[in-house]
Amino acid sequence: MSEIETTAPASATPAEPSTPAKKQEGSFLWFLVKLVLVVLIFRSFVFSTFSIPSESMLPRLMVGDYLFTAKWPYGYSRASLPLDIDIGAGRIFSSLPERGDVVVFKHPIDRTDYIKRVIGLPGDTIQMTDGVLSINGETVTKERIADFVHPITPYNACRIEAFRKTAADGTPVCDYPRFRETLPGGKSYEVLDFGQTEQDNTAPVIVPAGMLFMMGDNRDNSMDSRFDAVPGEGVGLVPLENVVSRASFIAFSTDGDASWFNPISWFTAARWDRIGDGI
């Protein structure tokens, strides 16, 4: 009987190690790197964000407003770069703000971010007399308009008892006297005035070269260029190189009533009518 030849099955050739997973991982990491670079460039040279920390810019800006601010209008300096990176004094592509611009800037001493309105440019003489502003001897028009009335919320507490009232529907509100100022160049905006205070009468100040005179729209609740530069208080005259950006528009706004544990409150606390408003 002839032998039947048997052959062992050939062992399978080892498969080549697959690399798609590694390629995908590498692609995702590279995507993250590019995303970080794009965001860094965007925040450094185009737009940055700023949240309103106080009531000094009422009625235009309220605590709980989140702004986009434009970096390019005034050029770039150490103050306008992330992390306050020291690139030396001065600005590149420098351009002077206009009177009436709302500007984010670094405090001259502690370099905290502030936001105020530009009132005086280099060479201007600025003075307050009985609560009325004058620029270069010309009185700025100040017209009484309808009161600024807003609900009392965690972010807008209405700390002055005299201005606390109750609306017709029973809602507690704050009712502030409101005025419209018009600068010599025609720029107009709204301000609040609570009555006579120490900052309503100031000596004439000539703004030196390379400096700006800043004021808050909430005139009796703003530590601005009418006060000496003190950390956490007045800002004094602000160097042009301390300017960070120009306020552009409100990206989001909340009254402070939201709770992390109640997602519905994220929507009910939003001030939808303010979102998208220009400054």
From TrEMBL:
Q: Name one GO biological process term.
A: signal peptide processing
Chief location: membrane
- Its domain of life reads Bacteria
One Pfam family recorded for the sequence? Peptidase_S26
Tell me the ranges covered by the Peptidase S26 domain, including all copies. Answer: 29-251
Q: What UniProt keywords are attached to this protein's entry?
A: Hydrolase, Membrane, Protease, Transmembrane, Transmembrane helix
Q: Which PROSITE patterns match?
A: SPASE_I_2 (PS00760), SPASE_I_3 (PS00761)
Q: What class of enzyme is it?
A: hydrolase
Q: Known SUPFAM superfamilies for this protein?
A: LexA/Signal peptidase
EC number from the UniProt entry:
3.4.21.89
Localized where?
Answer: Membrane
Q: Where are the transmembrane segments?
A: 28-52
Catalyzed reactions per annotation: Cleavage of hydrophobic, N-terminal signal or leader sequences from secreted and periplasmic proteins
Spell out the Low complexity composition-biased ranges.
Answer: 1-21
What membrane topology term does the record carry?
Single-pass type II membrane protein
Chain residue ranges for the region called Disordered: 1-22
| Gene Ontology molecular functions | serine-type endopeptidase activity; signal peptidase activity
Entry annotation: catalytic residues: 56, 116
Q: Which GO terms describe its cellular component?
A: membrane
Instruction: Name the family.
Output: Belongs to the peptidase S26 family.
What protein name is recorded for this chain? Signal peptidase I
* Record organism: Croceibacterium salegens
What is the name of the gene encoding this protein?
Answer: lepB
